[in-house]
Amino acid sequence: MFDEAVVFELAFASKVQVLTKDDLVWRQGDPPGDEVLFLARGRVEYFIKTADRFELIDVRDVGDILGLAALYEGTPHQITAVAVEDSILYSLPWELIRELLQTNDPARYYVRRHLFWGTRIGRSVSSSGIETTGGTVNLLEAHLKGAHAITPRPPERLLCCSPETSLREAATLMTLKRVPSILITDPERRPIGIVTGTDLVKVVIVGGKNSALPVSTIMSSPVITVAQNSSSTAATLIMLRKRISQVCVTEDGTVNTAALDVCTQKDLLAQSGRHPAGFIHEIRMARSPARFREICDDIEEMARTYLEAGISGMLLGEICAELYGELITLLIDISLAEMTDEGISLMDVPWAWIAVGSDGRREQVLRTDMDNALIFASSGDPEEDERNRKFFLQLANRAIEKLVNAGFARCQGGVMASNPNWCKTDAEWIEEVENLDLGSDGASLLRALILYDLRYVAGDQGLCATIRQTVFRSVGKNPAMQRHMAEMIVMTPPPINFWGHFVVERKGGNEGEFDIKKRGLTPLRDAARLFALHFELRQHHSTGGRWLELASAQPELAEIASLAREGYDHLLRLRTLTGLQRDDDGRFIDPALLTKLQKGQLVNVFDVQRMVQAAVRAQFNLDVRPS
Fold first, then answer.
1. Phi, psi values for residue 226, rounded to 5°
2. What pLDDT was estimated at residue 574?
3. Is the pLDDT of residue 457 over 60?
4. What is the pTM of this model?
5. Would you put residue 22 in left (φ > 0), alpha (ψ -120 to 50) or beta?
6. What is the spatial distance between Cα 599 and Cα 495, in angstroms, rounded to a whole number?
7. Taking the CA of residue 358 as centre, how many other CA atoms within 13 Å lie in the half-sphere pointing to its CB?
8. Of 78, 238, 315, 443, which has fewest CB within 10 angstroms of its CB?
9. Nearest to 574 by CA among 600, 545, 549
10. What pLDDT is recorded for position 302?
11. What confidence score (pLDDT) does residue 279 get?
12. Is the distance from CB of 218 to CB of 203 less than 8 angstroms?
């Protein structure tokens, strides 16, 4: 978290306090002082006095920070802190700590976690004055950290000539080699200038310059150079800044050493592969199942690199949604072409391929699942609709088989366009949503909510809007359904108990691990969806977007919505990175493998989850409490 020099500075400034069991750290009402306490050994409990009794509020363990809330607010301690074991604490100057927190986001996030206990006695987290970026960096920073190095291509590809070469001869060489430029070099192949095809068109064809003149008369000089093994992203940025279309790769990045290659922006994107724009190009050029799988493998590797660099999990989901959307659109086109070649003509019926569930919310990064469906326009004739369904099921089966070959797992719940239950006419979808049955096992409501998260992928986009609006009318205007959703949200406690211990599976294949999807992501996701339906928020269809819209539309819920969005993003990042590391869906987390910082961040998020559940309970007047 801190570099070595900062750690030495803190160690030099610290003082040691030794407490025995039952010693007071401070009493409720005491002034905050000017020191932060770091618990190095032992255990401290926080109590608040109400009427004639003391109530246990929170527990502090080794590695925790004590006394922050009072210092930040400049107010007396609102609780009493007692050492319940023999303990050792380090006292650190508050002014030094506050200065360090201004420039260290991981430390700020860690410290912020220690202020969440204050919500149990009515404190506002935003009043702490500690703001974080959510533990994320922007896309450019992440890509720079994970960018591929430039690897020069075979030297025979490099087209060079001397300054005396004529413009006509240069143009002939470029045509024969099928390259967009020619590099002018000295006898040691050091770059002197460069002439592009655009230069020749402007000067010779349009400008009427004599083609017998030497290339030195029109070459651009000096040549912009980069070194081999330098960042392909950095080279692209240089080209954008210098407003040039090509860059020369030399041995040491200067014009004083031999040229190795000349790269266009397209070359760099294709070479790096892990820039999203590069993947779009690669997907469009691919045709074989093996190539599709290779590209998807590379996308997951990009995801891992980005997550390790600190990119937002929600932003990564948006990137992957676009890439996988491009892929499935191409696979559908290939499948349609195959059917046409086999004499199976495309039905003259409007249709739409949609992503639903996590894919619809743009949160699907891993290929451990697929959630999709198909809508086609009703003809009004049941027999004709069945013939159309047969065609679209055949199309869906082909497209999904290609997705499987690319490494995607079939949905275990059958949420796929190849399933007749998820390949329906618009009229059938509307009828189902308008006649939801809460008295059943809840499957119909679940299907409606999955559809509410739909995202258009291919076909006729207008069909999608109709279905979403129907879901909104049916569920958004139904208090009983909303209450049912609220009850499900508050009945799922976080996977951590009052004492800060993770609640893990006791048997089965995931013994000793906790379910981050069911116990963490799902309540926050469902709460965002419920509030969006209840307050008629329609601008966003992702979980993060819904929390943002709620914060803007409902000021009294703005703080909770902001914290919930940040917490959801953190859980999404952790789950995705765990899945990439373990080659599974990342659903189960082993707390024994988490660092102290990671555990602290999770405790923070689960405190937010409790706050969200309390807000749901209050909004919908529920008496149900987590067991």
1. -135, 160
2. 95
3. yes
4. 0.73
5. left
6. 12
7. 19
8. 443
9. 600
10. 87
11. 83
12. yes
Q: Which amino acid is at 462?
A: G
Are the CB atoms for 97 and 75 separated by under 8 Å?
no
What residue ranges define each of the domains in the chain, with the CATH number in brackets?
4-132 (2.60.120.10), 149-272 (3.10.580.10), 291-301+311-471 (3.30.460.10), 478-619 (1.20.120)
54 - beta bridge partners?
49
- 149, amino acid identity: A
| Residue with token string 């590209």 | 295
pLDDT at 405: 96
How many Å apart are CA 191 and CA 227, to the nearest integer?
13
Report d(CA 590, CA 511) in Å as an integer. Answer: 9
Task: Judge contact between 54 and 74, C-beta under 8 A.
Answer: no
- The partner residues of 161 in beta bridges, in order of sequence, read 184
- 390: which strand partners? none
How far is C-alpha 468 from the chain's CA centre? 24
Tokens of 445: 């409501």
Q: Is 123 left (phi over 0), alpha (psi -120 to 50) or beta?
A: beta
**Continuous segment of H or E residues that includes residue 55:** strand 53-60
> Dihedrals φ, ψ of 115, to 5°?
-95, -10
Q: Where do we find the tokens 């986009």?
A: 461
- CA–CA distance, 207 with 217 (Å, rounded to integer): 13
